[in-house]
């Protein structure tokens, strides 16, 4: 795969992650705790980590966060999004590279927990209180279910993305 094809794939995956983020904002979820979400854009992030690597995944996350701020959110939401996106990408990348006993489902759960812990940490800094950490056990529990969903979906996306890239390499 040449550089142009790689950038085209990454651009399409970034657009997909952005669309999933926007759609996720439209899905009404039962009120569990502030910040509880499905994490649909992490499907793309995890797939990019597996197929393309950490640097490309980080690029996709940063561009998605910036575009999401410009299209649908505000600068405060951007701070939560960029910090938690980068932190969860780092943890999932380390998990993919070094934790060979974990499946993508386990790695996704770790990413979801990291995402929530990062958001709580950002909120604690912005609001100047550590009391927000009381939400962390609830969000961590929710992360198990959302992480499993994202992990299962990432397996499907990763397999199909690898098949597509393999076909593309044969044609070139």
Sheet with the most strands? none
- Percent of residues in helices comes to over 70%
Radius of gyration: 16 Å
Low-confidence stretches: none
Care to count the β-strands?
A: 0
> What CATH architecture label applies?
Orthogonal Bundle
Total individual domains: 1
CATH structural class: Mainly Alpha
Structural class: mainly alpha
Question: Would you give the CATH topology?
Answer: Arp2/3 complex 21 kDa subunit ARPC3
Mean pLDDT: 90
Order of helices and strands: HHHHHH
**Tally the helices: what do you get?**
6
The N- to C-terminal Cα distance equals 8 Å
Relative strand content: under 5%
What shape does the CA trace take? globular
If you had to describe this structure to a student in words, what would you say it looks like?
- By secondary structure, this protein is mostly helical.
- It has a single domain, classed as Arp2/3 complex 21 kDa subunit ARPC3.
- Helices cover 80% and strands 0% of the residues.
- The protein is built from six helices and no strands.
- Helix 1 packs across helix 3 and helix 2 runs parallel beside helix 4.
- The termini are close together.
- The mean pLDDT is 90.
């Amino acid at each position: 795969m040449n550089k142009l094809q790689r950038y085209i794939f990454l651009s399409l995956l970034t657009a997909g992650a952005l669309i999933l983020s926007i759609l996720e904002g439209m899905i009404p979820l039962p009120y569990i705790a502030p910040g509880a979400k499905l994490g649909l854009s992490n499907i793309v992030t995890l797939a990019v980590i597996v197929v393309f690597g950490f640097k490309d995944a980080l690029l996709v996350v940063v561009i998605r966060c910036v575009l999401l701020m410009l299209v649908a959110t505000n600068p405060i939401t951007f701070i939560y999004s960029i910090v938690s996106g980068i932190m969860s990408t780092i943890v999932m990348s380390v998990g993919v590279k070094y934790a060979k006993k974990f499946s993508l489902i386990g790695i996704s759960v770790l990413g979801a927990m990291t995402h929530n812990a990062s958001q709580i940490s950002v909120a604690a800094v912005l609001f100047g209180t550590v009391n927000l950490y009381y939400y962390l056990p609830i969000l961590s529990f929710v992360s198990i279910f959302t992480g499993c969903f994202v992990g299962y979906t990432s397996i499907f996306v990763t397999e199909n993305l690898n098949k597509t890239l393999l076909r593309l390499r044969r044609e070139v």
